[in-house]
Amino acid sequence: MGLLRGSRAATPLHARPQLRVDWNACHAAGLCHELLPEVVSLDPWGYPVVEDGPLPAEQVRDARAAARACPRFALRVVEAPAG
User: Fold this and answer.
1) What's the pTM?
2) Are 77 and 63 in contact (CB under 8 A)?
3) Backbone angles phi, psi at 33, to 5 degrees
4) How many CA atoms lie within 13 A of 41 on its CB side?
5) Could you read off the pLDDT of 8-59 as tens digits, one per residue?
6) Which long-range contacts (CB under 8 A, 24 or more apart) does 24-30 make?
7) Is 17 helix (H, G, I), strand (E, B) or coil?
8) Phi, psi of 20 (to 5 degrees)
9) Does an H or E element contain 35, and which?
């Protein structure tokens, strides 16, 4: 049998990127807020507060960079269906 084509997980049409926090991994370093203050605020203990919903289109690239820079890899950008 040959290689399967299109074996990647399908992304729903009109998916919108969202920023998510892995609370078990997060150690409240605050770097996400420093890199992305327009999207990430910090609670009184230094943990990130991210609005539920899609990222503004102009922030997606910066959000991906912040996720890569997180020292605990506690941030990720996921594609969520619109609507």
Assistant:
1) 0.78
2) yes
3) -70, -40
4) 4
5) 455 556 789 999 999 999 999 999 999 999 999 999 999 999 999 999 999 9
6) 25/72, 25/73, 25/74, 26/72, 26/74, 27/71, 27/72, 27/74, 29/70, 29/71, 29/72
7) strand
8) -125, 150
9) helix 31-35
